[in-house]
Each structure stands twice: as C-alpha cells, then as structure tokens.
Amino acid sequence: MGYFRCTINALVAVAAGIGVPGPLALAEEPATEEPAAPATSVVALSRAEVASLVTQLGDEKYAVREAASEQLVRGNAAVVGHLRNHLQPDQPEINYRIIGVLAELRDSEDDATRSAALSALKQLTKSDDTTIAGRARESLFPPVVDEVDGLGGQAVIFGGLRNVELGGGGGITITGGTVRIGGRSQIVQSSLEDGVQTVVVHQGIGRKITMRIDEAGIDVRIYRRDEEGRPMRLVYQAIDEVDLQLNHPEGYKIYLDFKGYKGGTVMNGMPKD
Whole-prediction pTM value? Predict the structure, then answer.
C-alpha cells in the first residue's frame, strides 16, 4: 500500500501544481513554434543593386560573374526592365549573361516576372545589334541539335506505332503489315497541350516537317535530301506570324498549311504548291 499511496500523493501534487522531486516529476514541454513560411524565390532588387550586379557580370573572375548571375535570376519583374537598360554593344560578356539571366527569368515561378522576361526577349530579337538579337532568339527556341539522317520516323497508324519510311519508290512506306501510299500523300500527327501545338508531317515526296507553336513563337523545320542525296535541314524561327512572313516566307507557307492541325493523326493529300 505504501507504493500506491506514494504514487497517488505524487499525482495529486502534480495536479495541484506542486513540484515533486525524483523521477515522478513531469518536465514542462517546450513550446512548439509554428514552422516558418518558406522564403520566396523572387526578390526585389533596386536599380542601384542591379547596376552593381551587372558590373560584376563583367568581372575578370569567373566566380564573381557566376555569383552575380545567380542573384539576378532571383529578381522580380522590375529587374527585367533594369537589365534591358544595361545592354550595350561594346560589352559582349555582360550582354551574353544579361540575356542568359532573362532566359532563366522566363521560367520564374512569378507570373509577372515570367511574362516580363518573355516580352523582353521577344523585343530583343529585333535589336539592331545582330549578336544581341541572335542570342535572344536562341534563348526563345529549342536548340537545333536533332539528327537529319532519319527522314522517316514513327507514327501512330492503324491503332499502333508504325515505322515510316519516306521516298521509298516515290511514296510513304509503313512497315508492320507493309503499306505504301502515293508520292503526293502525307501523314500528319498533331497535338495541342498546355498551350503548345506540335505538328509532325511525313510526306511521300521524301520530306519531313516539324512545327512547334508556343508562347515564345513559331519553330518550323524541314528535313529532306539535296540533289546528291545528302540529308539536309532548314529551320525557320519567328516570334509571331508577322515575323515569320517577313523573314521566312517559305516557313510561313508551311505554317499556313499546317497550323490548323491540333490533335490526332490523319492521312491525306499534300497541299498544293
């Protein structure tokens, strides 16, 4: 009974707020703190701060240049305007990095920053400085690194993924229950997802066309063989229809022929020349 009496007395003492020595004393639990809100990845930089960081973009030390770039890519929409004002024709390294920062800001989590960066890059493609214009254009479109040897490819046809060969006897050959269709025929695959339209065209004359349309602009590529049978590729990139029509009339014609395809696979005749 002595043990139970001691235990009961101790519990009463605890309930009454009286400290009890020994192992039965209950330690006060530390107050729990609310988890801190995650810091935003977008920061506001003043005009003076941007100017200082831009100067560091041209520093002789690589580590300094990299650190400045990393700080600038965390900037908000206001930073975009400040950066554009620092583009000058006699500073290639700084210009290169400024456009690189704008390209990264285009992927910002902040909608206003992303929109401002995209708009700035499109405007810079019209710069009188061809180096700046070219660098801005490169940042808007995927790099041209695809192979030109495979003029065929694959397409979902007859309910399955089939191999497609172009120009085989003046037409399209579909293997897997071999089917050959005429030289003026074509297979068009297209999709429209999340604001991105893609079109892939296999043409019986031995030509393959790819087209991508998104917020950055229009990317048209033509794959065929030259007169000596060597594979070649033509690339037409523009920020909008007007740019494509003025600067790439052949690409614009392709664009007009296929911009209406927005989902599915069809086999039909080629557009008239």
Answer: 0.70
